[in-house]
Structure formats: C-alpha cells, structure tokens
Amino acid sequence: MASPRTSVRSRHKNTLLKVVILGDGGVGKSCLMNRFVSNQFDEHSFHTIGVEFLNRDIDIDGETYTLQIWDTAGQERFKTLRTPFYRGSDICMLTYSIDDRTSFNNVEMWQDEFLYYADVKENTQFPFIVVGNKSDVASEEREVSQLEMETWCNENSITSYIETSAKNATNVQEAFKLAVQHWLRLETRADRNAPLINDTVNLKSKHSKNRTSCCIGATDD
Amino acid sequence: MTKLVKEIAVTATTGQHENELIGIAKIPLNTIPAAGMTMCSGKNNQVAEQEHRHMLRIILLHELEMSKVAPHWWCGTFSPQGEQLLTQHIAQSGLTPTEVALCQWSVFAGIHQNHALSFTLFSNLLDKLVKPLQTGAVLEEDVKLFWDATKKLLPSCFSVIRKIRKKSASEKTTMKQVTEILKIFNHINSLEPLPSTDLFPLVLYPWVTYNGEGPNCNIPATLNDAVAQGANDWMNHILENNKRADETDISKLQNLNQIIHLVRSDLQKAIEFYDKLFQDGYNSLTNGDANANPLIEGTSLFELYLAIQRFTTLGIGLCPADCDSFHIKNFHLWFHRGVAQWLDIAVYKALQRIEKAVELDKLVHVDNTVKYSSSAVDTLTIFYQVKVFWQQLNWPDVEGCYTFIAKIIDDICRCCVFYADKMSAKVDGMGDVQDIYEKKFEVTNEWCLAINNIDYVRETLEPFTRDLGMEEVIRKISELKSPVEAQRCEHTLENVIANAIDTVRNKIIELLETVVSKMAPAMKRLLIEGAELCNQDSNSVDRLMMYVDNNLSTLHRELNEENFNRTLEIVWDMLSDTLGEIIQLNLDKRRPPSFFDNLRKTLNLMLGSFKNPADCDNCDALRRTEQILRINGLETADLIHQVHLDLTEQFKQVKDSPYGEISVRSKFEGNTLTIEVMNARNLMAMDSNGACDAFVRVHLLPEHKFSGHDKPKTKTHNKTQFPLFDEKFVIKLNPEQRQIEDAILLFSVKDKDLLGYNNQYIGEAFLHFKDIEDTTQPINCLPQVHLQLSRPTDTTMTSDTVRALERRLGDKQAKEFLRKFKQRKGS
C-alpha cells in the first residue's frame, strides 16, 4: 500500500473530519477507501481486521479538509471491535453492493448501529451518505436498482447518495466530496443555530446529550 | 407465673424428664389470662431475659427430641404449643424483638454445639441483630452473651468449611449451607468484638496460622486458613484411603497414578461446577440494572475480570495439559462488550484528571532544566495510567488487541486535543497590558509554557504508543493471519499515530496563531501611526520595532526552534494580511504616495531586522505586499515610467508579433545618443488596401526627465508593409540625463492618417539605455537590433501599476496618460 499521507501540514491548520465507512462484509469498503486514498484497487483483498485507518486531504471550494477515514470490518464477529470507533464521527458512509440485495437491506441496520454507538444527539441531522458500490457489474447481475436506493434514501431523509465502482474508479472521489459537502451544509446550519460541541464522554446513556468529537479542529474554524 | 417458670428452670437443670415439663407447660396455656401482661410489667428485664433463655432452651430441646430432626436442619419452627408458650412469655415480660433475638442467638448457639441447627437460622437472626449491635443499642451484659454464643457457633461453621472438599459441589444444600455460613461470617465481620474476645482460641483452632498480638478476631484470615486446611485434610484423606499395598515400585507408581487421577477428577468437577457459577453470575451482572452507575459498575467488572484472569493463570499453571478444556480459559469472551466501556471509562477519567491537572498548574517551569510546567508532567502520568490499564487487561485475543490499540491511540489523541484546549483556555486573557496610552498584548511566559506543554505531550505520543506493545501484536497477527495483513494493520496503526501527532500539531499552530493575532492590533496601530506621521518626528517605528522585538525575544527564549520558526512565519503572514488591509483602506481614502512609501520603509526595516532572507518559504505574500506598497508609494510620473518598464520586460517575451518588427541601431558616445531607425517588416495592414503608411516616433522615457528634447520622427513611407526608413537621429543629453537609471527608448510605429489627425497605432517597441552600447565605433559598424512590435494587453491593463494609476482619480497626469495608453492598446 502506498503511503496515504499526501501532505504533511507544516503551518496551516486544516479542518479535520472523521469519516466512518460501514456496510456488510464484502461490499468493498476497504476498496473504496484505498481507491480514494491511493488510487489503487486490489481484486483479492483480505477481510479487514477490526478497523483500518487512512487519511487524505481533499479540496472543496478552495478549502482543504483532512479526511480521517476509519474503514470497519463488516463481519458480525468484529462488532465489538468496530463500534468503539463510531463516537466522534463527522460523516458516516453507509455502503452496500448493488449486486447483493441483502447488503442493501442491511443498510438500515448499519444506520441504527451507528446511531446507537456514535452518541449522535437525538433529533439532529447527521451527514449520512449512502454508497452503492460495484456499479461496474453487468446489468443482469444487478439486484438493487438506483431508483430503489433513491426511494429508500428519501424515505429515510438521507439526501446524499451515489453509486460507485472502486474497481474502475467511478464516482469514488465524488462520493467523498459529496459527503463533505453534505457535512458543510449541516455544519453551517448548525453554526447558525447553536455551536455547541462538547468534548465529553457521557457514560450514562448511549445517546448522550452532546455529540463528541475527536477532531475539535473540525468544528471551530 | 414467676414461680412456675422457676420450677421449669429447676427441673431443666436437675435433668428431669420432659414429660413432666410438658405437663407443666400445658397448665399455663389454660390459665394465663389476658391480664397477665399488666402483672408482669414491673419485672426486671435481666431476669426476664434469663427466664426466656431457659424456657427457650427447654422447649427447643424437647422439640428436637420429639421431632428427631436431622442435624443442620432445624431452622426455627416450634410446635404450635411451644410457639404459643414463648409468645406468651415474651408478651408478659415485655421483651423487645432485639432482646428476643439475642436470647435465641445465645440459646441456639449453645444447643448447636450438641445438636447442629440450620445455618440459615443463625444468618437470619444476625440480620436482626447486626443493626442494634452496631449502634450500641444493646446492654453490655447482652453483648458479652452474644460474643460468648458466637464463639460457640463459629467452630461448627469452620468445620463445614474445612470439610467442604468432602461434599459434592453439585449438592444443592451444600451451596446453600456455604452461602449461609459466608453470610454469617460477613455479618460478624462487620461487628466490633469486645476487646477481651478471643474468637479463635488455639485450643479449638489448632490449624489457624494467626501470629499477631492479642486475641485473634480476624475472620477473613481464619477463613483462608480453613480453606487451606480443608484442602490439606482432603489430600491427607485421599492419601490415607489409598495406602500402598506394598513397597514395590510398581505399587508406588500405581498409587501415585491413582492419587493424581483423584485430584484431577476433583478439579474437573470443580471446573465444571464453578464455570457455570461464574457464567450465571456474570450474565446476571451484565444483564443487570441498567441504571446503575456505569463508572462503578465498569470498575467492578474490570476487577472481576482481573480476578478471573489471575484465577485462570493459576489454573493453567496447575494443569497445563488440560487447560484447553477449561471453559474459563476463554473467559475474556464474556467481557468482550465490557472492554469498549472500560476504554471509555479510562478516557473519561483521563479527561477529568487532565482538567484537574490544568486547573492546578501554576504555569511555572517544573525545574530549571525544562521548559514545561506541571500539567504536562501530570498529563503524561495520566497517559501512563491508561497504559497500565492496558497492560493489566492483557487481552488474550490478538485481533482485539490490535483494534483496541488503535482505539487507545485515537483516544489519547483526543486527550491531547482536550489538554491543548484546556491549556489555551487557561492562558487566554493573560498578557493583556493596559497603560494610559494604549492597550496591548504582550507575549508572556505563560503563553510559551502552554505551547511548550502541548508540544511536550505531543512528543511523547509516539514513544507512548510504542509501549502499548504494538510490535508484539503485529508479529502475532503475522503468525495468525498472514504477513500481508499484519503489514496492513501496522500501516493503520502508524497512520493513526501520525494522524494523532498531526492533529496535536494542528492544535499548537492554532495556539500560535492566537498569540500572533493578539499581537496584530498593536502592530497595526503602530504601522498606521508610522505611515501617517511621515515627515514628522515620530518614534512610532521605533516603538513598533521594540514591541515586535520584545515579544519575539520572549518567544525565542521560551519556545523550541521549530515552534519559534512557525511563529515567525505566522507573524509574517499576519503582517502581510494587516498591511494588505491597511493598503486597501488607505487607497480608498486616497492617501498620498508618501503614506505607502513610509509603510514600505517600515516593512523593509522589519524584514531586515527579523527575517532571515534565506528562510523564505512564505515570502511570496510579503514580496507581493512590498511590491504593492512600492507601486503605490511612487509619484505619478514615476508610476507611469514603471508601467513602461513593465512593458519593456513583457515585450521581451514576444515572438512572431502580428504587428510586425523594426530594426534599429543605436549607440552612446559620451553624452551623445545616436539612433538609426533602419526599417520595418511585416507591419500589420491598417488600410483597406492591405498596406500601411507607416512612420516611427522615438520617445525618451521617463518623459519628465527628458523635457526639452524633441521626440524625433521618421518620414512616412506610404503603402508598404516593409518601409525602409534609414534615418539617423543624434540627441545630445546632459550628464544627468545620461546617468538616469532605467531610462528607456520607446519606438512607436503609427499609420499616418490622410488628414494627419487620427493616426492609427500599429505597435511599439522598447529599448533600455543599458542595452545601448557606449562606443566610439561608427554606427554602421554596429549590429542591427530587431525589435518585435507589440501593444499593451488586457493583462497590462489589470496590472498593479495601471490599477494604481487608475486609483489616482483626481490626478490629471494619470488621467491623461491612461487615456492615451488605452489608445495604444487598441481594441
């Protein structure tokens, strides 16, 4: 794997965003991340053990954002290992594979799991983006239509969705860009209302009052 | 009544038969009237208790005799008659429930010595007694009785514990019995024995290893001894029951075999049984009360985890061969969900402690050799505690280890950021100085310490994470999975670390920026003052230099080089920004050029003093600021000349011009300039006939310095794109004019209008004085110079210089120049 650190910041501080990629095992989460970060694709990649981490800078409207991407293991047996990483996320990428209906049906489960463990403040909009990977498969192998995905997203008030192919590098950059833009929209709205970000761990309840953030830099500039 | 009971007592002590007693007992049942209570109201309490004890004893003995109840079985239920009798007596004597319970305790313990009663009975009695005994609501006499009775009871308890190995653990009653005994111990342990009480006299407890001073009342220690003694006894029992038949080696061997087998099967049974017990207990814990304090619950769970961990280690040490079959070997699986919670607790505690550490920090150097203060050291200690937690956890599953390490690093990073935030909040507001003249910010040692602290913590991040045992875990993953996967995990961990360090560095930069931005207002004010009071005697430049110098030297003294250089860079950035602001504002105010020129001088002064010219990573912004200042500081005539100088440079790049080309020769001889305009080629067709009527005019620039000289002009050559001018002009300059730096010749080629009023511009070319040879050679020996014709472009129009001219709205000279300049540009 190529070194993912594209630039080392020396003077200027960037906005840091923590991104978590979730989805069933085998839908191509790691491939998406590797395509995005190092523009590589490995046909025979392994199962992720627990979590993987990479980061990359992305420029949007002249601003540089450093994405800290946590790629998680989709297998059930890793559940206890991946859930601790949800807290403090800024963006959550829910993935499925368009040639696997089960993985699409599970998106809702992933969303719930995320909301449960991430301590997202209740009744707040969280920047979810739904990503249907493997858009390169032949049309007869497709099990989930784009329309179906869009319908589901609309029903669940998710406004960002995209189909990608990590294999032939379609829409991968766009997916991450879309996610950050979504975050920006919500963030500017939140700033107008009440910029209340508190770095506390609330052990009492799974749904603590304050969303915690490990990247304070992301929120106060 | 008194008489009756006394008789009972007498019969009991003289050992008469119970038949008589029953007879006696029956009488009062019929005769005692309801009014009996008032009769007895005056009775002495002590006596009443004594009577009650006697009565209890007699009735109970009778009860036991009659019912033939098995040992350890009777748990407080009398026959209805006995019950009635006792109730009656209690009522009549006015005994309190505590007194009754004390009587029962004393009597039952006594009887227990000969005929064992149920331990539940005693444990229930203690439930009632503990409170009054603890609060001292019991008479001293009774307390003594209580302890005497307790001494009678305890041997049987310990005897059960000692013999526990002989019982099958799966028997229900055994568990119950042991539970009750332990309850009794727990209760008694919570009481303060009388000073004279020796709970465990050696005579009764020869196996107790107590060797302290005075009477031994240590129940837990005795319990330990009892268990150990029990194991010993049991081993002896096995050895005795399996005596060797003879002294041959074979029988020795067989004997050993048998014994080992017995021990093993015993352990096996224990494992099966206690495994289940543990699991039940654990499940009830994890599924238990969700509202319990998670911090305490989590901590207790972790303690349980550690206890089981030790237990398992012991088990594996005892029988390494069988350890795979232990259920408990994989005990960590029960705690899987707990670890995330523990990690959270660890972070939560760490954050709390960090906050406290920052609060307590006095912001002074820890000692003379270091440049950080106490909270940095405290924070490291707090991180160290997290590490200790991780080491204690000693998580057996490698994949889990790897992920948890990633999590810990991420958490520690979060702590660092938290620390940085708290630190900057603490120093915020420090260093604001106000005197009668001004309010300004001075960099203080506290600020530097805050920055150093964060940096110190950041530096230790990497060694800290290495200490978590990353390499070992990666090696194990490599063995368990594959080297490729291990490499990926390693990459992830390294990325997480790098990211953490970077994030904290980000935080430091943020703090440095805060410092610099606090310096900005003072610097801005001094800069403006300096520029405003241009020609007057003003010390504002000196004050600015002093201010910057003071603050920078504080920073330089306290910060490390890396951070100091960063600060410098930020200062220069800030300076560029501030100057940019000032420039914009004052251009709008139409300040005279001298204003900007003064600013430029100040800037150069500062650059000269503080900036190392070689270190110019971010000079672009500064250079640009300087350039803008320079341009705006020029008088209009100089500014116009600057436009021409810029064009001279720009035109040098032109190739294959559509406007054509001219050839000239020129030379200096002393102060005499000779110019020969030779010809032009490929002139752009200006007329409808596809040719042009061209002439060349030569200008000496800057115009105002060559006033009095003609602008020589060639003849017009009609209807050709290739005119041959071949005209020579000799211009006598005075020495000053000869020496003008940056003087240039402008050749403008025009198309002659028929009427001569509206000449069209074809193009122009520049020749710098410095490119003209100073020679005595005749001019026709010199080489021709071919100059591409060009015109000002859109880029020229938007250049800083032209912009600056445009801004001088009230300036006629500028206005006139621009009008002509636009014509030169053409359309």
From TrEMBL, chain A:
Nucleus keyword on record: no
Gene Ontology terms: cellular component: cytosol; late endosome; lysosome; phagocytic vesicle membrane; plasma membrane
Organism annotation: Rhamnusium bicolor
Keyword Transferase: no
EC number: 3.6.5.2
UniProt-recorded name of the protein: small monomeric GTPase
Location in the cell: Cell membrane; Cytoplasmic vesicle, Phagosome membrane
InterPro entries: P-loop_NTPase, Small_GTP-bd, Small_GTPase
Short name of any one Pfam family annotated for the protein: Ras
Catalytic function, reaction form: GTP + H2O = GDP + phosphate + H(+)
UniProt record similarity statement: Belongs to the small GTPase superfamily. Rab family.
TrEMBL record, chain B:
UniProt keywords, alphabetically: Cytoplasm, Endosome, Exocytosis
Signal peptide range in chain numbering: none
Alphabetized SMART domains for the sequence: C2
InterPro entries, A to Z: C2_dom, C2_domain_sf, MUN_dom, Munc13_1, Munc13_dom-2, UNC-13_domain
Every MHD1 domain range: 302-423
Residue span, MHD2 domain: 538-655
Keyword set includes Cytoplasm: yes
GO biological-process terms attached to the record: exocytosis
One Pfam family of this chain: C2
PROSITE patterns: C2, MHD1, MHD2
Subcellular location: Cytoplasm; Late endosome; Recycling endosome
Superkingdom per UniProt: Eukaryota
GO cellular component, one term: late endosome
Domain (C2) ranges: 654-783
Protein family (similarity comment): Belongs to the unc-13 family.
Name of this chain's protein: Protein unc-13 homolog 4B
Upper taxonomic lineage: Eukaryota, Metazoa, Ecdysozoa, Arthropoda, Hexapoda
